[in-house]
Design goal:
Blueprint (H helix, E strand, L loop, with lengths): L4 H17 L8 H11 L6 H12 L9 H22 L3 E2 L2 E2 L1 H4 L2 H20 L7 H26 L6 H26 L4 H28 L2 H4 L5 H4 L5 H9 L2 H10 L8 H13 L2 H22 L4 H15 L4
Antiparallel strand pairs: 1-2
Helix pairs in contact: 1-3, 1-16, 2-6, 3-4, 3-8, 3-16, 4-6, 4-8, 7-8, 8-9, 9-15, 12-13, 12-15
């Protein structure tokens, strides 16, 4: 029997993109809404809305009527955070295209982003399951607060030299993982799932998000740029204190540790030698294996929560396959 994974995911993605395309295209003033259309049209994996729809389908939302507003809410909120992150980081590109504040200006980016946050709440309020709305709003508030806290920790860590592994993992949990967990929890609640089941799905998503970010960090340093489509070693060039860097400090001898700190205190005009040397030190310290071990532990814990949740086992299998594709990716 062939797996239902590709066809179900493709169908859900198509339905979601059809709905998303009609979101802001006819609204005025265009100076406010065109930037929102632009960032939403830049693409991406659309993982968060997909898992929200799958979580709801696990609990009987076959026509997506109950969960489509949730999918729209989490995707619009996610892109709102990207829009404002790009302004904070002064990033010129997003997914290979000009960022909103570069294409328009900073004021437009701020205002359009603000509206996206408001619109995310509006979508959530349009969920037909009104009995679940208070719990869903509490969940959304908790997740949104966590994302902002994670972003602030990330900013703070740039100026700190004493970041711990535990602090880094907490930062990526807040900045990345809680939104994935929240999308699953919201989808389940919208479909009328029990709180216990929604909690298991949140934990599944949170742990999967942690594993996903560790895999992303690993690919940034040790991935093949021809496969990933990104410059290898970007985190090293930017002196990002990722798990790889912090674990290397824990495992390296004093001489290598001093050299690693020296590299991360410098930003040479030509970073090629820095990337080569730091990557070599990390490889010798066994960092790829250490990352893979922690990633796989998070992954195993995530699947234990998925197994503990109720719902349609066939849809659950699709959700597991989607997570597997994210965690084992090479790009």
């Amino acid at each position: 029997m062939s797996s239902p994974y590709p066809s179900m995911i493709d169908d859900l993605r198509r339905q979601f993109l059809d709905r998303l395309a009609a979101t802001f295209s006819d609204r005025e003033p265009r100076g406010l809404y065109a930037p929102i259309d632009y960032i939403l049209d830049l693409g991406g994996k659309r993982v968060r809305p997909l898992v929200a729809l799958l979580a709801a389908r696990m609990f009987g939302d076959e026509d997506l009527n109950k969960s489509m507003p949730v999918a729209l809410a989490v995707e619009v909120f996610h892109n709102f955070t990207l829009l404002h992150d790009d302004i904070m980081d002064d990033s010129p590109l997003r997914r290979g295209q000009m960022t909103v504040h570069e294409k328009w200006d900073i004021n437009t980016g701020i205002l359009s982003g603000d509206l996206m946050l408001i619109q995310a709440y509006q979508y959530l309020c349009e969920c037909p399951n009104k009995a679940a709305l208070p719990e869903m709003l509490c969940t959304f508030n908790r997740v949104a607060t966590g994302v902002c806290e994670g972003q602030q920790y990330d900013v703070d860590f740039e100026a700190r030299q004493d970041v711990t592994i535990g602090e880094y993992l907490k930062m990526i949990e807040l900045k990345t993982a809680v939104l994935l967990g929240g999308a699953l929890e919201l989808g389940a609640l919208a479909a009328g799932a029990k709180k216990e089941d929604a909690d298991h799905l949140y934990a599944f998503g949170r742990l999967t998000g942690l594993a996903f970010q560790l895999q992303d960090d690993l690919l940034d340093t040790f991935g093949d740029s021809k496969v990933t489509g990104k410059r290898t070693g970007n985190d090293i060039i930017r002196n990002k204190k990722t798990f790889l860097f912090l674990k290397a400090l824990e495992l390296l001898g004093k001489e290598d540790k001093d050299e690693l700190n020296a590299w991360f205190a410098d930003s040479p005009a030509d970073p090629a030698n820095k990337v080569i040397r730091v990557t070599d030190m990390m490889a010798r310290a066994g960092i790829p294996q250490a990352v893979a071990e922690l990633r796989d532990q998070y992954q195993a814990d995530a699947y234990a929560h998925l197994d503990a949740a109720g719902g349609d086992p066939g849809v659950k299998a699709v959700l597991r396959a989607l997570a597997e594709s994210l965690l084992q990716r090479e790009s």
